[in-house]
Amino acid sequence: MLTTKFIGDKIAELRKKKSLSQSQLAQHLFISSQAVGKWERGESMPDIITFNRLAEILGTDLNYFSENFHSIVTEKNLEKTRDNQESIGNQKTSWDMSRGNWMNADFSGLKNLHEKFNASNMQYCKFVGSDMSKLLLKSNNIESCDFSCSDISYSKVLSSNLANNLFKDCSLKETEFSESFIQGCDFSGADFSGVLFKSGGFQKNTITDAVWNRTAFNMMYIADMVFNGSVEDCSFVDCSFKKVTFQNATLINTFFKNKRLKGIQFIDCKADRMTYEFLKNGKADLTGVTLITHN
Is the dihedral of CA 281, 286, 289, 295 positive or negative? Predict the structure, then answer.
């Protein structure tokens, strides 16, 4: 009869052939060595997604564990297996993915990805079309990853470095970026409604056709940026600007609180009376701003 102890013995056998310790295998899987020990003693068993990763690391396939492999997985975790057989996009993850070194991983299409990725290094990973809402990202280095068309709303990105990533057509509604530095990213078509940027940097990013509504920039360094389209109910408080351009933009009820608004250029822009007065008070160059009048 196929048992978890049988599966554990198979894992241990191949692990030893690969000259891997339990600790080394655990590091490859981003889990604890205690979890590997429990597998090998038959006290527990990996879920189906971890089994796939385990087989890849050990240089085998699922058939190695038994031709009846799927039956025992079903007995142990029927609902999770069925979800993964239908689509990995329906899988609700159950891991804490923190402290990982993620390179070229493809998480595209995953749903309910609410777990933590704290203190991780992520490079060249794909999260295309994924549900990452309410995600916590803290102390991460995220570089050259693709988050296009993903839902990252109501998330928190704290004390992280984001460089050269794709966020095209993403929903970032109500997300907080605090003490994070964002550079060279493509946010074309992204929705920044209700987003808070606080005490960090935002420079050399592409923001063509992005949605700016109730977006707040507090104590941010903003450089080499071009804002266009509608900017409504937004605020820029105690920010430092360098080579920032508002071009073909309409600014409505947007609050600028700076002693002097240096480093901002306006080209073919329109502003309502309230915004115009905020800019005027900050001694901004209003040459390229037309006041919107109401008849």
Answer: positive
Q: How far apart are CA 216 and CA 277, in angstroms?
A: 18
Measure the CA–CA gap between 237 and 234, rounded to whole angstroms: 10
User: Which fold would CATH assign to domain 92-291?
Assistant: Pectate Lyase C-like (2.160.20)
| Phi (first) and psi of residue 195, to 5 degrees | -75, 140
Domains 4-86 and 92-291 share a fold: no
Q: Looking at residues 224-243, what average pLDDT do you find?
A: 96
* Domain 4-86 annotated CATH 3.40.50.2300: no
Q: Which pLDDT band, with edges at 50, 70 and 90, does 286 fall under?
A: very high
Closest by CA to 270, choosing from 236, 237, 227, 240, is 227
CA distance 24 to 22: 6
In tens, the pLDDT along 195-209 reads 999 999 999 999 999
**What are the residues whose beta carbons fall under 8 Å from the beta carbon of 293, sequence distance 6 or more?**
none
DSSP string of 190-241, one letter each residue: -B-TT-EEESSEEES-B-TT-BEES-EEES-EEEEEEEEEEEES-EEES-EE
Domain definitions of the chain by residue range: 4-86, 92-291
Q: Does the reported pTM lie above 0.85?
A: no
CA-CA distance, 114 to 133, in Å (whole number)?
A: 7
For 134, the 3-state DSSP assignment is coil
